[in-house]
Amino acid sequence: MLIVMKPSATEADVGRVADRVRSLGFTPHPIPGAERVAIGITGNKGPIDPVAFDDLPGIAETIRVSQPWKLVSREVKAEDTLVDLGDGVVLGGPRILVMAGPCSVESREQLFEAARAVKAAGATLLRGGAYKPRTSPYEFQGLAEEGLKLLAEAREATGLKVVTEVMDSETLPMVAEYADMLQIGARNMQNFSLLRKVAATGKAVLLKRGPSSTLKEWLMAAEYLLAGGNYRVALCERGIRTFETMTRNTLDLNAVPVLKQLTHLPVVVDPSHGIGLRAHVPAMARAGVAAGADALIVEVHPRPEKALSDGQQSLTPAEFGALMAQVRVIAGALGRPV
Ligand code: PEP
Ligand code: MN
User: Fold this and answer.
1) Does the C-beta of 286 come closer than 6 Å to ligand 1?
2) Alpha-carbon span 281 to 211, nearest angstrom
3) So what's the architecture of 2-63 in CATH?
């Protein structure tokens, strides 16, 4: 259930409603909006009788949330969520952000070259994995803490914010120490114990879509993060598994407008994993922006042919620069700065 407070409701009114929710054995989640506060309720098994709140002042209405996801839903919060990463970098507002960098951090030279190039082209976040979920145990697994240190150095040198994947709870405290935004990879989307622990760090989260997950499963995974008290969450469409084998995955751009309707969380598009072929990444990046994405995450490598992971889908710095110019034009048509 959702309790919508009157615009005139005081903090004390909100506090009394939250106390009542707790006294019923449930958890209140006050969500401030532009005009009024709404209080989401979780922990209840069945419907709650609104009569339990009849005597409290400041309540405008009580709404039964029709979907199994609650806190991520537009019903609970009509306004777009802004994920503030500091220093004016805000995901989910009018400005379209671009996150770019190599699939894996491989060396100082490689990372710095990529970081300087994507910064010069207009990216605001640097991506790069230090812990890599590889299909084969014999392939490059990432530089671990050494990679995280290099990301932090590159942040110092360029001012770019850092988004990097956390694969498990053992390494979570360390990854959280270095990252501005924690990426939960596609393969971990439904790792519920990891989701709970990541929520508790309070760090901004980029939740990638599982390769065979429905939008509902994905929203429920995001719900774990919000129910764990972390509202700084963005959803990243990175392609799903279909019967098609010509491309690595099938980038489900349907997800973008549908998610924008269902949830207030920002939506990010990853054209690199989505199609998996360098020649076609720019087209899908442009399409992602046109479909309404709030950000792109793009793999860029100074020498893709030498990359230790995902070289076949990594853009060169020059290709990325050309893409950024096109992205600005498309974003401009939508009235959005980049
Ligand atoms: C990545 O971003 O390099 C990655 C491994 O992504 P995904 O989890 O979407 O496969
Ligand atoms: Mn990759």
Assistant:
1) no
2) 18
3) 2-Layer Sandwich (3.30)
